[in-house]
Design brief:
alpha/beta, TIM Barrel, globular
């Protein structure tokens, strides 16, 4: 049975004191939730402080990006060993905003994911189509390209440590979201891609999150679908009340 995973992506929001306040509020409200996995992904500047707050709790720490080299003359970048040293257990890679604004490719996403796995950090690998892709009937082709090439070279033993986040780009921050049927259709397709790359047994171990305007009102029906294993939450993770309710609605 795959364990539901709810991750909050705070993006470029919250200074250190705000991050600490939010993390504390979430910790207090969710201290008794053990049935699901909860991950907070604050900005780099707040990682250490949030780690101090969630240490020895049921909440895990995640980063929002990483560079694939261990060290060197790469001004402004942060490596997987640095994230491990802080205490990160997860890291988002290939988010649609990174692909759109920073021109990330499947190749760079793949290098980042492999670097994380070497350090024992689970990558949350984002895949998903733009609105024009969906209108053109290219959703499956785009998603297959993202899955196969972002996960190229990741071994059969490593792949269960990967979390895939399906985020239809047209639903991110727009208030729109895929219906439960649309989400399930693509999640099932992704699992089929994983099965073709490895085998069905391994594919059934990989957790696939949905991301895109996730709210307390829609999370329950989304995760009721057989291939939807949680959510990568954006805007709703910036307020303790909404993030807490999303998490609680996963078990109620």
């Amino acid at each position: 049975m795959r364990r539901v995973i709810i991750a909050g992506n705070w993006k470029m929001n919250k200074n250190i004191s705000e991050s600490m306040e939010l993390a504390n509020s979430i910790k207090r409200a969710l201290y008794d939730i053990l049935e699901i996995e909860i991950v907070l992904c604050p900005p780099f500047t707040s990682l250490s402080d949030v780690k101090e707050i969630v240490m020895d709790t049921n909440i895990m720490l995640g980063a929002q990006d990483v560079y694939w080299e261990k060290e060197g003359a790469f001004t402004g970048e942060v490596s997987a060993p640095m994230l491990k040293n802080i205490g990160c257990e997860y890291c988002i890679v290939g988010h649609s905003e990174r692909r759109q604004f920073f021109h990330e490719t499947n190749e760079t996403v793949n290098r980042k994911a492999r670097a994380l796995l070497k350090e024992g950090i689970s990558p949350i690998v984002c895949v998903g189509e733009r609105l024009e892709d969906r209108k053109a009937g290219s959703t499956f082709a785009v998603v297959k390209d993202h899955v196969e090439n972002s996960l190229a070279g990741i071994t059969r033993d490593e792949i269960p440590k990967v979390v895939i986040a399906y985020e239809p780009v047209w639903a991110i921050g727009t208030g729109l979201n895929a219906t439960r049927q649309e989400a399930q259709e693509v999640h099932k397709y992704i699992r089929g891609c994983l099965s073709a790359m490895h085998d069905e047994e391994i594919a059934n171990l990989v957790r696939i999150q949905y991301g895109g305007s996730v709210k307390p009102e829609n999370i329950k029906e989304l995760i009721s679908e057989p291939d939807v294993d949680g959510a990568l939450v954006g805007g709703a993770s910036l307020k303790a009340d909404s993030f807490v309710q999303i998490a609680r609605n996963c078990i109620g």
